[in-house]
Amino acid sequence: MENTRFTTNLDDLLENPQMLGYATPDEWYDYLKQNGFNPISLSRSSLEKSFEDGGGFKVIWGGDRILQYHPAENSRHGGAYWKLFSGQTGIVWYNLNGIETYSRKRKKGGNG
User: Fold this and answer.
1) Domain assignment present for 75
2) Residue of 101, 94, 107, 102 lying closest to 22 (CA atoms)
């Protein structure tokens, strides 16, 4: 796989979430794992199984930033999806192509 499909700075995903669509969740997981981002299992009890066993994963970086992949199984959003969070942007959900489907964005100058 070409590394040009990925970013070495996950903050780039906040600015250009369409990058999520450049690769499959399997490819992102492998890339993140191989490059020291330490993807871990999701923490809701119904989703705690490992990615290798069909669960989702999350990566936490920069103090308040989270990238999550949720598989279609047990999804509350109509299928598999990505979710990005930062204190500045709030929570934004994306389909597997990196297209925004829903958000709870931060209000500028406010607490949420």
Assistant:
1) yes
2) 94
Indicate the DSSP class of residue 61: E
Tokens of 1: 């796989």
pLDDT in tens, the chain (112 residues): 445 578 878 999 999 999 999 999 999 999 999 999 999 998 865 556 788 888 899 999 999 999 999 987 766 767 899 999 999 889 999 999 999 998 887 665 545 4
Q: Which uninterrupted H or E stretch holds 90?
A: strand 90-94
In a domain, 82, yes or no: yes
Domain containing residue 99: 3-105
Tell me how far apart the alpha carbons of residues 111 and 84 are, in angstroms, rounded to a whole number.
18
Exposure on the CB side of residue 79, measured as CA atoms within 13 A:
5
